Amino acid sequence: YELLRQLCHVRHGQFINPPEAILKFHDKLTTSLFEEAPYITAASMESIALAWQELSQQGHDTFIIKVPSRFGGQGVHKASSLEELQDCAKELLDDSGYVIIQGFVYTGDQQVDKRVLITPEKLLGCVDRVAAEDSYICNLSSGGFARKSGPLNDTQKSTVALIQNFLVQENIY
Q1: Distance CA 37, CA 34 (A)
Q2: How far is CA 108 from CA 55, 103, 140, 173, in A?
């Protein structure tokens, strides 16, 4: 990040993506800019409770809590009550100052998430990440595996278009 900050002072004609755009972009937090954000960020026990209340009203009874700065499934916890969320938050808030909370989406016997690779102009492809048996974490480095993904549904296609427009708007290529 420090190098990107320094590059902000260099003429922009030398870069495909302006350093400011990359600094502003965060793969987990950027989606919170959209109206239908799939998760809530929280920085205190009070905001954890508000997130739990909001997600419960949306129909969720199980929750995922994680810090934005880790990857590969590290620091991801599943909770089914406010007390469990707050217990996890005690550890995680010290790590980054805030956490991401989202409703857990059940996908059947094995947990699956879809990863979509796009540019501002086109969809390059997608893959399903499947959790290892008896796990809810789909990250490949945490025991999950990849499989060929089926076609995107209409909601996923509209999400791709939304993100592509955002990339163009933010000058990220």
Answers
A1: 5
A2: 20, 15, 18, 36
Scan for tokens 């989406």, then name that residue. Answer: 105
- Which bin fits 125, alpha (ψ -120 to 50), beta or left (φ > 0)? left
Q: Identify the bridge partners of residue 146 per DSSP, sorted by sequence position.
A: 129
Cα-based torsion angle of the residue sequence 173, 99, 161, 138 in order, rounded to the nearest 10 degrees: 90
pLDDT recorded at residue 167: 86
Q: How far apart are CA 44 and CA 62, in angstroms?
A: 20
pLDDT at 110 over 70: yes
DSSP string, 64-131: EEE-TT--TTTT-EEESSHHHHHHHHHHHHHHHS-EEEEE----SSS-EEEEEEE-SS-EEEEEEEEP
Residue 4's region, left for phi above 0, alpha for psi from -120 to 50, else beta, is: alpha
- pLDDT > 90 fraction of the chain, expressed in percent and rounded: 35
Lowest mean pLDDT among 13-17, 46-50, 112-116: 13-17
